[in-house]
Amino acid sequence: MTLNKFYVDRLIENALLEDINYLDAATDYLIDEQQEGQAQFISKADGVLCGIELAMRVFELLQPDIKAEVFKKDGDLLKKGDIIATVSGKTRSILKGERTALNLIQHMSGVATATSEAVRLVEGTNASIADTRKTLPGLRPIEKYAVTVGGGKNHRYNLSDCAMLKDNHVDAGGGITNAVKKLREKLGHTVKIELEVRSLDELREALETGADIIMLDNMSCDEMREAVKLNAGKAKLEASGNITAETIRAVAETGVDIISMGALTHSVKAFDISLKIVG
Predict the structure, then answer these.
(1) pTM for this one?
(2) Mean pLDDT score of the chain, rounded to an integer?
(3) DSSP per residue, 98-128
(4) Which of 166, 182, 184, 276 is flagged as catalytic?
(5) 185 is catalytic
(6) Active-site residue among 28, 217, 223, 253?
(7) Quick one: pLDDT at residue 148?
(8) Please, which of 38, 73, 136, 175 could form a disulfide with 278 given CB 3.0 to 4.6 Å?
């Protein structure tokens, strides 16, 4: 797992604290403290697994000596009915961690599955699939990790990674040429500039500035094909804006380098995984 373990533990601890204020009213009064149990994570659909280590970590934080047996790893293709993992330990620990573990693994697997499908739809073209900053607050690291598990690439992680001028930056900064000129005077040599353009005329101006990456915002496929010709390999071209499973192939076939999709993270459907007590 490439996620920072300090972040992971803090995320899980906050989620558990949110879920267990001071006691679990059902579990603590119903289940004897010494009762042992086992439960299975079961896939209820076909897709890509992501987040299994986080799910197991939930139970480890609740009970350090809990035992886990993992049969599938992140990136594996799941079929409906597959047993992903089992956990064995105090029944109270399993019941208290169930929802938090499922919330994490279902969301992350949903992101990975959606990304994998987008990657599949553009196979054979020049385009790669990337995420955006449209992530749920506090969950950006695990969502961006899940995109990579699904075969996609990460756009900038945050505002410090790249000087990206969107329409409001350009309008507030005195236009494309003036905005880029101001940035060039202050940016270090390692920071790239990305420009969002809304028309072919803006693209022509952006190319004159020497921008490293140019985002084609909500352009038609005809406009994007013309943009690829005008660009002639000068900058990386990124297509973005309301791209769906129905339109993504046509967008990729225009010749753009990158297709960025906020939907991979901000509105993805949770993947169906259940946790069942055995016996």
Answers:
(1) 0.95
(2) 96
(3) HHHHHHHHHHHHHHHHHHHHHHHHTTTSS-E
(4) 166
(5) no
(6) 217
(7) 98
(8) 38
